[in-house]
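Leucine-rich repeat and WD repeat-containing protein 1, Furnarius figulus. Tokens?
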Amino acid sequence: MSKITTELLLERAVPRSTRLRKIETLNLSKLQLKTGDLDPRLFSRLRHLQKLDLSDNLLDKFPNSLTLPDLRVLNCNNNKLEDVTALKQFPLLEELTYENNVYLTLNDDYKVMFLLENLRLLNGKDITKLANHVRRVNSRKLTSKVTAHWEKFFRDQLPEKHTAEQVKSIKKKFLKSVQTNVVYGPSSLSEFTRWRVKMIAEEFLSYSLGLELNSDTEPEEKMDENEEESTESPREAAEDVAQVTVTPSKRKRNHSKSGAGNKRSKSQANAEEEEEAEDVSAEPLHFLQCHSKGNSHEDFKTQLWSCVFEPVLDSGARKDPIVSSSKTVATCGGESVCLIDCETGTVLKKYKVATEEFFSVAWTTLTMVISDSRKKAHNILAAAGRRGIVKLIHVAADFCYGEIKAHKKPIATVCFSPTQETHLFTASYDKRIALWDIGIPDCDYNFKASQLLVLETVSIPLRIALVPTCPEQYLLAGCEGGCFAWNIKLDKGQKSRPFEAIFQFPDDESMTTSHRVDGLAFLNDDVVVSKSSKPGCIYLWSWSRSFDAKGKGCQRTVSAVILAELEWSTTDMSYLTLSTCPAKEYVFCGDEKGSVWMYNLSNYTTAWSSPKGKRSERRISPTQILKWPELRLNGEQLPEILVNNVVSDPAFSYLVVLTSVNITAIWKKS
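Tokens:
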């Protein structure tokens, strides 16, 4: 039942009224209203409403047919609005405020200025002059560019006597080309420009050339593929996902709340778990296929590489690892980056770059200036990959506000400093690790990035980790040719630096530095976990005791002080990386059969922390191995499944498993 009734409207009228048609001012603030509560049939009776206050509610959009023909003033502050285009239904609107709707950006300001010709005040500022420029000068220049683009590249492609198929084909190509190639104004307004260019191009085709835009125009999902970059709404992202349903022998079929779960395609995989009935510490929750190339449900080849949980926007809580993460995780692979709700399996957002293959993602929290010079914390996601470019995404606003051309070769991994929120490390195939200051964007998303440091490596860096006790002084890197350490302190004058130490590890009867290190993470302030090319083994070693040995002799080659070895798969397959959950003292690593090896090391860490802690003589067996369920596609078993990465949230409530077959598996701890 809707929260809004005739009685409520009469009571909240200012002053109170006895007839809906007599209400001119209405206050519906602080009612926890959602979009579905705005009943168009009821609102259509408010024929003379001029002022409406909907502030401090939960609205994510406006229904398209509220029918308020005389509305002049609208307050939507402190909601969750994602789009403003439905406001065009209020043509007489003069004053509009929608501050503290984090999903709205500068592009939305320009959209309402164009759509509402009578608008004078936007968020308390007089926009009359700017709005006139947007409606006239901006539109005139874009129209000129669109027309010129047609004349130069497309006019001669359309035969004098053309068929319907030829019209449809040329229309599709033109709309794709014009949105990609027609640019105008600052990059912070690129979304608005594309929106207007598409609108102008459609009008141009319809009226100037008589090419009517029929109802079978290509859907928006197709347009996303045509753009170099695109951001999808939660609904669009959900529709791109194939949800694999798991039916374990001990529990009922899992129904995801994701929209994709209800839109099962012929190619959707059905899964059955054929494990023996046994007590498990984690159970499969969702299996998602959300990184498909071109949104194809037939794509079981896209490799998924990196995932990281979003930090909670609470500066006080960020110090406590147990509460420093939400249940939202960012994943990357192929052309896309996805944000997933681990509990529901819903793909909340999806960001795509058609020419990219993303290898790594990382979060930071920036304190940004919003309207009225107020400051507010916002989570920013950095994503990088094959093109050597870092994309900076303000996720709440669905907006990629900038990029850093960091390297000329692919970027293998990125990470932010835990103490300097704007400091980003990028490790590249060009055998360099760079430290960047990404700056803080202003309210128009203008920002300035600068390179602070370059660390020279002798081989390709694969994994990087900052030393927890001194994250501003030392960085470790696992590389194709060994494990190295650098001094990264910025008060040193040298901007380009060689490594300070290379670590030796056991190799049969001797020690060696020459081995691929494709897994690297800290279990706690001192214990490093690394995985090398030696089959069947993961090493745990002491950072302080190993590095202190270098200080005494000042040699660059030092032996890692091994604390223990973890028993792992005997495969010689590389790039199956590991991760840790320091708060729970767990290590995770996937294998070549789709399984996840879990090690609870809480019984060992106390002994290792003593100054002369003894090495564990025997290899430590996994506490548990989570077996991959047998997934079948149209009755046939999926190909070989490699687990490229597995990550838990800080509280170890969820495990996110990334595979070589375009499937993200989410397990929940029992």
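The chain has a mean pLDDT of 83.
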